[in-house]
Amino acid sequence: MNNISIAKSSRETKKLSLVKPQVKVAKEKEAKPVARKVNKKRTVTSDQRWAMIAIAAYYLAEKRGFAEESSVGDWLEAEREIDHQLLSQ
């Protein structure tokens, strides 16, 4: 703070104080990540569903030793399992 003397007359002296003006500057707010609602139900395309069934059928066939007479049964079982999983989500 600075003091300045101002004389009205030779006998009077007043002291005035210079005060820096208080200027409020808005601070930039930090960017917060935007919370988005996540759709818990996933949309699966028919190609993705087919791939999931094919993988599941492969593991079922592997489990029983790749006997050829049950490949259709493996596919149908895998299809039931995948559809059940997709519907329960």
Structural write-up:
It is a single chain. The chain is α+β, with helices and mostly antiparallel strands and about 90 residues long. The protein has a domain at about 45-89. Helices cover about 40% and strands about 15% of the residues. It has helices spanning about 45-65, 70-85; strands at about 1-5, 15-20. It has a two-stranded antiparallel ribbon with strand order 1-2. Helix 1 (about 45-65) packs across helix 2. The longest helix is centred in the middle third of the chain and has 18 residues, at about 45-65. The radius of gyration is 40 Å and the shape is rod-shaped. About 5% of the residues are buried. The mean pLDDT is about 75.
Q: Low-confidence stretches at least 5 residues in length (pLDDT < 50)?
A: none
Which secondary-structure class do the elements indicate? alpha+beta
Average pLDDT, all residues? 77
| Euclidean distance between termini CA atoms | 69 Å
H/E element sequence: EEHH
Strand order of the largest sheet: 1-2
Count helical runs. Answer: 2
How helix-rich are the residues, as a percent range?
A: 25-40%
The biggest sheet amounts to: 2 strands, antiparallel
The radius of gyration computed from the alpha-carbon positions, rounded to a whole number of angstroms, is 40 Å
Shape: rod-shaped
Q: How much strand content do the residues show?
A: 5-15%
Q: What's the total count of β strands?
A: 2
